[in-house]
Amino acid sequence: xxxxxxxxxxxxxxxxxxxxxxxxxxxxxxxxxxxxxxxxxxxxxxxxxxxxxxxxxxxxxxxxxxxxxxxxxxxxxxxxxxxxxxxxxxxxxxxxxxxxxxxxxxxxxxxxxxxxxxxxxxxxxxxxxxxxxxxxxxxxxxxxxxxxxxxxxxxxxxxxxxxxxxxxxxxxxxxxxxxxxxxxxxxxxxxxxxxxxxxxxxxxxxxxxxxxxxxxxxxxxxxxxxx
Amino acid sequence: xxxxxxxxxxxxxxxxxxxxxxxxxxxxxxxxxxxxxxxxxxxxxxxxxxxxxxxxxxxxxxxxxxxxxxxxxxxxxxxxxxxxxxxxxxxxxxxxxxxxxxxxxxxxxxxxxxxxxxxxxxxxxxxxxxxxxxxxx
Lengths: 227, 137
What we know:
The complex is a heterodimer.
Chain A: E1 7-13, H1 20-27, E2 34-38, H2 45-51, E3 55-58, H3 65-78, E4 83-86, H4 98-106, E5 112-123, H5 127-143, E6 156-159, H6 160-165, H7 175-186, E7 190-198, H8 201-206, H9 212-225
Parallel strand pairs in A: 1-2, 1-4, 2-3, 5-7
Antiparallel strand pairs in A: 4-6, 5-6
Chain B: H1 3-9, H2 14-20, H3 22-41, H4 50-68, H5 70-79, H6 85-125, E1 128-129
Helix pairs in contact in B: 1-2, 3-4, 4-5, 5-6
C-alpha cells in the first residue's frame, strides 16, 4: 500500500510565473511531493515555484512539454515515487480529482489512470476545441488502436512500473499521443477516470491553437518512424 | 546528346573532339574517382558505417559513368520507359532530394533527443527545493 509520501505530482511549466502560484496553492493541501519542471522559461516560473516550497527542476533550455514531463517523471522516480501524477501548470485541472485518479492505480486495477474531461466535466470549453479534441480521439483510435474518450488530457497517474517502462521520446506536444501508443504497445492496463478541466481566457490564449493539431500529427507520425 | 555528338553534328574534326570534348568529363570523372578512392581507402573506419559508405561508392560510380558517357543515361532512360535522359536525371534528383531531406530531418531529430537527454541530466543534477513562503509544505 502506498503512503502519501510515495505519491509525486509532476508539473511541466513554461512561462507560468503568473499562474503557477495559484495552481500550487490549490494543489499543495492535497499533495506534499510536488516537482515543477520549468522548461527553460525566460520568466520567473522557477523562482515563483521555489517560493512555494516545492521541488524545482529547471531545463537550461526549452525542450518542450513532453521532455519536461519525462524529466519530472525521472526525478520523481529517483526520489522513490510509487505513483506519479502529471498535472498541468495553468490551473486547468482540479486537485480534488486526484484521489479518484489514484484509486485504480492504488488498487492495482490499472497501471495508468487517464483523466477524461469527456467522461467528467468541462468548464468554458469552446466548440472549436471540443471538435479538435474529438478528432484527436478519432486519430488515436486509428493510429494507436486504443479506445479512449480523451486523448490529450495531461492529468494522469502512473504506477512506478508503468512510469519505468514508458519513455516519452516526443519532446513537444505529440507526447500525449505517444503515451497512448506506448500503453498499447507495452500492454499496460489503463483506466479512464472522469475529471474536470477548466478553461479560462488565459489558458485558451496560451494553449495550443487548433491548427497546431496538424503539426502534432506530423511530429507523432515521424516520431513513430524515427527510433 | 553530349559534347562529342554536338561537335560531330557541327562538323568538327576528330582532332577538335579529342581536345575539347573530354575536358569537363576528365575533371568530373577524376573528381568522382578521387571520392571513390577516398571512400575505399577509409572503408574500415567506423563512421559513417559500411552501408552508407557503400551507397556513396555506388553514387560516385554512377555519377562518374553518367558523366563519362551521357548516352548511358539515355539508354537507362529508354530502358525504364522515361524517354529523355534529362527527365531521368531530374527524377533521380527529386528522389535524392526527398531521401536527403528525410535523412537530415531524422538526424536532426536524433540530435534533438540527445540535447534533451543532456538537458534532463543537468536539470536533475541541479534540482532544488525552495522554502515555502506562506504556503503549506
